[in-house]
Every structure is written in C-alpha cells, then in structure tokens.
Write a structure and sequence with these properties.
By secondary structure, this protein is of the alpha+beta class. The chain is 49% helix and 18% strand.
Length: 185
C-alpha cells in the first residue's frame, strides 16, 4: 500500500475518533437553543426555548408572563440556533491542527529541515496556526447552522409543531438526562 494513502487513512481514523461524542468522556448536558418565533400576525419574538407543551411554547423562565408564553396555533415558523458554538470551535481547531500538521510533516519529508529543533518548531507552529485557522472557521460555521421549523401538517399544526420542537426544549433534554444511569465515581 502507498505510504501516503496509509498516512491519510490513519489521519482519517484519528480525526473521526477524536470527534466522536463517546470519546469526550463527559457528563451529558442539555443543549440550550436560541429561538426566533414568527407569529401569524408578523410579530417576532426571541428567547431561549425552555419548554413546549401541546398548546404553548415557553421562552426562558417567563412562564407566567404573556411574552414568554406563545400559543402554538399562532406560530408561523420557528428558527432554532444552538446557543453554544463550543463543539464547532473545538472540532474546527482539532481538524485544522491535525490537517496542517499532517501537511507540514509531508512537506518536511520532501524538504529536510537543517536540524531536529527546526523540524520540531516548524511542525509545532504549522499545527498551531492550522488549529487557529480551524478555530476561526469552526466559529464561522457555528453561526451558519440554524434550523427553520414550520407546521408540517395543515390539519393539526399544533401537534406538528409540538413534535418538531419538543426535542430542542431544555425541559425535554433534562428529562432524558435524568433517565440515564448515573456514573459512580
């Protein structure tokens, strides 16, 4: 097998292994989603998706106020965006650092460095600059990821919105996490 293809295979395995959720070995946490709700009367309401019931969408901790409680029947569409870009930033930095480090290693094999110290410094600075570039790209891509949810069923729009929005609500995610078996330290 070609040594270059073998290195590419190992790099792919390393990147996919480092990005898998199971390898992070962290306690699961609920994702927080920022939403923009557009009503049928063209009002736009922003907030954090707290809970969805069969008839209302609740934003933030404002369950008792009228601003935080929106009837599902009045919603035209909901734009959902993850509040934290941490996963995109970390993934971008890892991929950028590994890819640039790999390319620097390939380049340094063709053009030998004058000393081992120069080799190490070149490789380190290349990987660090690749990680920084990947961090910026991951942050930019994290801003672009949003999802638009509209009622799919015209006959029963409340049920349709409820089923689509419920997995994104903070309450639903907390209920799922609380059902998981707890780790003992």
């Amino acid at each position: 097998m070609n040594p270059f293809l073998l290195r590419c295979l190992w790099l792919t395995i390393l990147i996919s292994g480092s990005l898998s959720v199971a390898s992070w070995a962290q306690q699961p946490t609920a994702s927080v989603y920022q939403v923009k709700v557009v009503t049928k009367s063209a009002h736009r309401i922003r907030g954090i998706l707290s809970e969805v019931t069969d008839s209302y969408l609740f934003l933030g901790n404002e369950k008792r106020s009228r601003e935080g409680r929106i009837p599902l029947i009045d919603i035209r569409k909901v734009v959902i965006r993850r509040r934290s870009k941490k996963n995109a930033i970390i993934s971008g930095a890892i991929i950028g650092g590994l890819a640039t480090g790999f390319l620097a290693t390939q380049s340094l094999q063709k053009n030998q460095a004058s000393s081992p110290v120069t080799y190490g410094l070149t490789l380190t600075f290349a990987a660090a600059s690749g990680a920084a570039a990947g961090l910026v790209v991951g942050s930019a891509l994290g801003n672009l990821t949003s999802r638009v949810i509209r009622p799919a069923d015209r006959n029963n729009p409340e049920l349709s919105l409820f089923r689509q929005l419920e997995p994104f609500s903070w309450r639903y995610q907390q209920d799922l996490i609380n059902r998981l078996p707890q780790k003992e330290n």
